[in-house]
Amino acid sequence: MQKNKNKKIIAVLGAGNMGTVIAQVLAENGHKVNLWNWEGDIDPLKQIEKFQENKKYLPGIKLSSNIKACFKITEALNNADMIFFAVPSNVMKNIVSFVAKNIKDKAILVDVSKGLDPKTLSFVTSLIAKHVRPSLKGNVATISGPAVAKQIALHQYTVMNVASKKHSVVNKVMEVMNNNYLKLIPCNDIIGVEVGGSFKNVYTIAIGMCDGLGYGLNTKAALLTLAIKEMADLIQAMGGKRKTAYGLAGIGDLIGTSLCDDSRNRTFGEYLGKNIPKEQAIKKVKQVVEGIEATKCLIKLSKKYNIQTPFAKMIYQCLESKKNPSKIFKDFLQNL
Predict the structure, then answer these.
(1) DSSP per residue over 81-118, as a string?
(2) How many CB atoms lie within 10 A of CB 218?
(3) What gap in Å lies between CA 159 and CA 161, rounded to an integer?
(4) How, if at all, do strands 67-70 and 9-13 pair?
(5) Which residue from 15, 68, 104, 138 lies 20 to 30 Å from 286 (Cα-Cα)?
(6) Active-site residue (options: 68, 172, 200, 220)
(7) Residue 80 neighbours by CB under 8 Å, 6+ apart
(8) How do residues 73-126 score in pLDDT, each as one tens digit?
């Protein structure tokens, strides 16, 4: 484990499972971490303060004493050298615009949540850059790859991509994150990393449906191949590098998420495959299922860039059509 002599003050906004585990990595690396969660969900902060554990989102993991639970976002941002954004993408715009004036000069801003703003179809990194002052626009980075939060917390070796427009920003993020159980590998394709991180959840829903319908690895492998093809097409159409789809932020993240029993998007898909109605399935998951909004965004982008995404379209129909999702899914397989 890394013992960092150059200790920094780092804010993590979002105390869900991933935000909490990012805070833990940073804290174990010797940094002071201020962890905040939105005012509508302060239970994790209370639990961390009382038990040194986030019983709601990361149960069973004793958290570092270097993590401070902050109930006010301004307190979390105070003198922060680096800010990690781990809140749902649909609230990112409001949070970034609200905190922009409180961000320290020369701070590094890191997107962990991934995803798009459903109204503008802007990636989170673009949203962050748009709402901060000019001197900070180039200080935005994104992290993506196969990373199940609980496994990171248990020090199971994890490798992800980190991307930014500036090499210096990438290096600074690697300096605070890398240790003997987590490694970040630089990537110079922000578009590709963002597409992979945003849309793996879409295709994960379908892999979950395979579980609900009783299909095995043969079916999943075929569908994952189709998913990577569609993601690569979109990355290329948007100006990114096609090869990124075949790296950690693409196929790596997709496999890691879609084959993980704990994945909320996979679990939601499994419920859908069992013909549990969408709204009821969402309630059973008990967390935000980001793949639902991401599916809508993916369909809009495929139309905007004039690319064919029949697999994503089928998933959209399963979510939005009044027809039986199981029938839609089976018909798609028969017509491949």
Answers:
(1) SEEEE-S-HHHHHHHHHHHGGGSPTT-EEEE-S--B-T
(2) 9
(3) 7
(4) unpaired
(5) 68
(6) 200
(7) 9, 10, 11, 34, 103, 104, 107
(8) 999 999 999 999 999 887 888 999 999 999 999 999 999 988 888 888 999 999
Say what the pTM is.
Answer: 0.92
Return the amino acid letter for 256. Answer: G
Distance between CA atoms of residues 317 and 92, nearest Å? 27
CA dist 132 to 93, 129, 164, Å? 11, 6, 16
Q: Are 246 and 228 in contact (CB under 8 A)?
A: yes
Q: Active site includes 200? A: yes
Residues linked to residue 182 through DSSP beta bridges, in sequence order: 158
Kindly give the residue spans of alpha helices, DSSP state H, lying in the chain. Answer: 17-28, 43-51, 73-77, 89-99, 124-131, 149-153, 167-177, 190-213, 217-237, 253-258, 264-273, 278-285, 290-304, 310-320, 325-334
H or E element, residue 180: none
